[in-house]
Amino acid sequence: MIPYKLLSIIFGFSSLLLLTTSYETSNNLNILMPDVVASHIDDYLCASFEMDKEKATYITAFNPAATSKDAHHVLLFGCTEPGSKEKIWNCGEMANSDESSEAKHEVGPTCASGSTIIYAWAMDAEKTELPKDVAFKIGGSTPIKYLVLQVHYANIDKFKAGKTDRSGLVLTTSSLPTPKTAGVLLLATDGEMAPHSLELFEVACKIRQDIIMHPFAFRTHAHKLGLVNSGYRVRGKNDDQEWTEIGRRSPQLPQMFYPIEKDVAIQQGDYVAAVCTMLNTNSHIVRIGPTGNDEMCNFYMMYWVDGDQLLNEDVCSSSGPPRYYFGRDRHLNVDKIPEDAFHIPPPPNGAAPGGNLQGGHHMMMQHKEQSHKRRFHYESID
């Protein structure tokens, strides 16, 4: 028999080993702005963080370290090469405007090569944890050699008061491989909407790669005029076509990644589609653009695959209204679009953000009957 004291030593050592292993394989990685100073509202600033090139790191959770008082949104990109060798650089579409000409930061893209979207945050969204056995794989032999943090600044009062900013993300990481790899597909549009109008911004792309994706979370993004964004898997042709909802949410709610309630596997030959319903109450045209006074129609889909082969093309885009609508795409049957596509679902706590969009059925009828001309004056909505 093994003496009791020896057993105690063995079990004690085993417990210590387990604790040590757990500590070594689960860590926090701070991806934060290095005390930056923004010069203008709507500045986009970027900072890069080099990853371990010898071994891979696995991201299992994203914990925001930002507030909507300062940041309009925070994006995390994976890059093979960052857009600048500088510690901080101006990476926004406004970088070459006259207003930004006095900025002290070098101008450059987010990534010089190998750009991929990993995470997005806005409106004080909460922590996002990935499902069990799912992680974003970065560093090592992957094309992601750097993480690049992009912050779109909505307010510069703190900078005028002499303060700096450390907005960003705290990532939960592990050195242990996972059997499933996470990725993000972004559906986004260009386009514009007329004064005093209700408009649909639509985008769809065919999955041509031999891949099976399992969406598990989605995020909607628009600015002040967005009412509801929804995403769909479109399968089949003509009268047999089926539109299955991936997710639907008001972009006026905290813009976190919300869990997808059911398994909607997407495979080669399927289409992914998204529609944003917007109400322009202004007396001027509003266009898709980078500032808070412009608009955006974005639908983010976070998915996992068995193994580590992700989508080669992770952005699906369209020219938006008035040039692109579903009805002009011969592969899409607008008669099969679910009638609740334009209705704002209640948020998780049951309190609707400004109420549901009235006249959703009216919009559906207009969608089917006038897909070639899509400009709805909101005064006429029931």
TrEMBL record:
Please report which protein family the annotation says this sequence is part of: Belongs to the copper type II ascorbate-dependent monooxygenase family.
Ranges for the Copper type II ascorbate-dependent monooxygenase C-terminal domain?
A: 181-326
Q: Which cofactors are named for this entry?
A: Cu(2+)
> What organism does the record attribute this protein to?
Rotaria magnacalcarata
Q: How is the cofactor bound?
A: Binds 2 Cu(2+) ions per subunit.
Upper classification of the organism: Eukaryota, Metazoa, Spiralia, Gnathifera, Rotifera
Protein name, as recorded: peptidylglycine monooxygenase
Q: Name which cysteines form disulfide bonds.
A: C46-C91, C79-C111, C205-C316, C276-C297
Whether Plastid counts among this entry's keywords is no
